[in-house]
Amino acid sequence: MTSFYVTTPIYYVNAAPHLGHAYTTIAADVMARHHRQRGEEVFFLTGTDEHGEPVADAAHALGIEPQELADRNAERFRALAPQLSASNDFFIRTTDPEHEAVVQSVLSRVRENGFVYEGTYEGWYCPRCADFKAEADIDPGNRCPIHHIELTREQEDNYFFRLSAFQERLEELYERSPDFVAPRTRYNEALSFIRSGLRDIPLTRHKLTWGVRVPWDHEHVFYVWFDALLNYYSALSYAPTPAGFAPGGGDLTERVWPATYHLIGKDILRFHAVYWPAMLMAADIELPEHIFVHGFLLMDGEKMSKSLGNVLDPFEVIERFGTDALRFYLLREVPFGQDGSVSTASFELRYESELANELGNLASRSIAMIARYRDGVLPAGDLDPELAADFEGLTESFCAHIDRAELTVALESVWERVRRLNRYVEEQAPWRVAKEEGREQDLDRVLRTLAEGLRTVTVLLWPYLPHSCEKLLAGLGAAELSLQGAALGPGHVSSVSAIPSLFPKESQAKA
Q: Which CATH architecture describes the domain 3-312?
């Protein structure tokens, strides 16, 4: 059976979650749900990154130990997933002892393979990024380009990773796998960094104590990025087998690895697109298939960031608009892979104009007309060939877009059919046909076509709007979610029943 493995970044626990974290989790969930509809064995991983200097500093500022802060905020991130209707199969924490053991094992193998040596590092460091900055990456005033804080000069004895040894192999990887990193602008950015000449980088930190201990030198901990990146691999060794998998428990690595998609933000591109594949090569581990890099959610022209203080609370948004509305908005408003601005005003506009007026109104009108003119029962028969032609190839093109992580484009392709069905209602005017003598079969065909078209778009929209689509499919008497029968065709809907309004215009519905 085909497997699909999708990951979010693991989220840093130095503060509580915000809408930017919700964005990546929702995107990964859409992909996971879609691939489950295709009958694949899906593993969806998210979790928290709990080591490193930013966590230690934030904890000490609060007068508590790093573990206490990690425990506190990890639970906030864990609580975010069900609030978003995320169907993740496992939630990993990098303080899990099972994860730490895998980190020590894999990085010991990297050392045994000859890619680790001792040395001294000196350079400009951002404590919030937990990253040393190259001269070309530093903003005027010696500031971090992401957090806008002044960098500090650090000198430290470390163990180094021989990143430079993988210059040619990484260039060859990008040459033979042009879809390894997407979108193309991010591929070009990563390849440009590689071609500029790779320098060896610190693998460990000597000044820190909050991290995974280096097994060959207990005075060091592993640099937080190497610890964190390995979560994608380590989780499979101790995560429980998902319910949808074929029998055969135990370690999932053989069944699921390599990852199909890592979804990440553009600020962590270098770590995932350069350091991560090099580290896997050094450990003789197969590389992931794709890394998709999305943009930033912007408010007032700045990246949404807890450290900058310009965040929207996803829990507040859900309370007002419902979970499905949040999921829809984020992947509708901002083309996935690009930067995009978000605001409460644009939330309300999308909710009213598209969810309430277009999809919600289409659903309520269609079911109401079938109930009024046919007592809720649709006789068997053919569909309107003109409308059927507008749906031709929709499922196949939709799947192709999802396969390329083009989540906004895929959503638009379905929404075009939602609008087409609304136009079909106006063009055919069933309320007029119902009054004309001898047009009973025409009315049957129009209502049947509406019901089947509505069913098709609802099945395809389910990964984006799971609760609303399940309610609507129940009203259509067609609960099947599999994509095998998603294409427009007769015989799926035979009777309908009334359902509550999916998206009340007062914007107070809860998903």
A: 3-Layer(aba) Sandwich (3.40)
